[in-house]
Amino acid sequence: MESLERELRRGTLELLLLRILADEPTYGYELLSRLGKRSSGRFHIKEGTLYPVLYRLEDAGLVVPEWNQPARGAARKVYRLTAAGEERLVELTTEWRGFSAAIDTILSGQEPEEEER
Amino acid sequence: MTTANRYIDEVMRNVFAAAEDRDRLQADLRSHFAEAEAEGRAPREVIEGLGTPEEVAAAFNAEREFRYASFWQRLVAFVGDAGLLMCVVLPVLTLGFLAGVVGEEPSNVSIVWLVPFGLLFLAILGLGIFYFPLLEAHFGKTFGKYLMRLRVVREDGSPIGLGASFVRRLSFYFDMLWVDALFVLFTDKRQRALDIVAKTIVVREPGEDTPRWAWIVCLLLPAAAICCLLCLFALFGPA
User: Fold this and answer.
1) What is the mean pLDDT of residues A82-110?
2) In this structure, is residue B134 part of a structural domain?
């Protein structure tokens, strides 16, 4: 079943990164370790492989990097969600909810209720 | 920071992308280490979390779209390389001929000429064998590919090693290059048959296009070699 998990992870990564960034602008390192923590380890994949996903979001205009100057030390790069990113997050969340509800229905072995068409 | 720097260098060595994309990843990896260090995590621990340099680079490369070099670009790059080699080989052969070494029975040749020319001919043989694979393994490109802005990489975008560079050159050694090269016209990734065996691809440098003058220079190099030869004959040849 490992491959199903990997496929699911790959398909939902963008959604999850967008969701975590929706809380507040986040450093790359923080973003990735939060993803690991909040998924209780299930998303503890190699952090280095997540940067390319972040770049995909950046190139699509869903997140923007900003430089944050802390009181001491070097400037740090913070990723912030854009308006387009927020829209995409709502879209993907709706899509995921519908999808997972459909899967649950199938797995429960029941016919879908009539009122839901 | 040396462990971190070594790790980042190793990632960047395996990354195949335009300069700005490389810089972005490099900057992010640097601050990744800095932030982790601020939280008191040891570099080794951070690397554990990031994954091996090859994994990180492969994930990054997987997002790139390779622009495969066309048959004509590769052919002209090869003409450039052949021209460059001819510029070395033809003058040596010409001088050998004029000195009475080439085309003579070795027993008829004076020892004064035989030794230096013997060494030169060995050097030429070495050049023929090692020119392509050594340059491709070390720089990812030969002189002709450099002019045409092409590069040989593994199918995942990482640099090729000596093994792969010799394997993809086998058809050249056995004089089957032309048959092998025709595969470029029909394969999805524009590969020669031996590219498929060696799991290599020839791609255009990211963010760069072949300059128009490169086509001309590559095509003129063999002509330059022949000019060299003619000049030598004119200068030193029998009146």
Assistant:
1) 93
2) yes
Quick one: pLDDT at residue A33?
80
Identify whether residues B219 and B151 lie together within a single domain.
yes
Q: How far is B201 from chain A (nearest CA, A)?
A: 22
Q: What is the pTM of this model?
A: 0.80
Q: Is residue B106 part of a domain?
A: yes
Of B27, B31, B51, the CB nearest to A48: B51
In a domain, B114, yes or no: yes
Q: List CB contacts (< 8 A) between B25 and chain A.
A: 51, 55
Q: How far apart are the first and last CA of chain A?
A: 32
Inside any domain, residue B66: no
ipTM confidence score = 0.76
Q: Each residue of B155-183: b (16+ CB within 10 Å) or e?
A: bbbbbbeeebbbbbbbbbeeeebeebbeb
Whether residue A29 and residue B25 make contact (CB cut-off 8 A), yes or no, is no
List domains and CATH numbers for chain A: 2-112 (1.10.10.10)
- Interface size between A and B, measured as CB pairs under 8 A: 61
pLDDT value of residue B103:
73
Q: Does B208 touch chain A (CB under 8 A)?
A: no
pLDDT given at position B1: 53
Domain that holds residue B194: 71-236
| Per-residue model confidence as pLDDT tens digits over B93-111 | 888 888 777 777 777 777 7
pLDDT in tens, A105-117: 999 988 766 655 5
Asked if A28 lies within 8 A of B31 by C-beta distance, the reply is yes
Q: How far apart are CA A102 and CA B83, in angstroms?
A: 65
CB contact (8 A) between residue A49 and residue B29: no
Residue type for B227, please?
C
Query: Average model confidence (pLDDT) for chain A?
Result: 84
Same domain, B197 and B100: yes
| Close Cβ partners of B158 (under 8 Å, ≥ 6 residues apart) | B14, B16, B54, B57, B58, B61
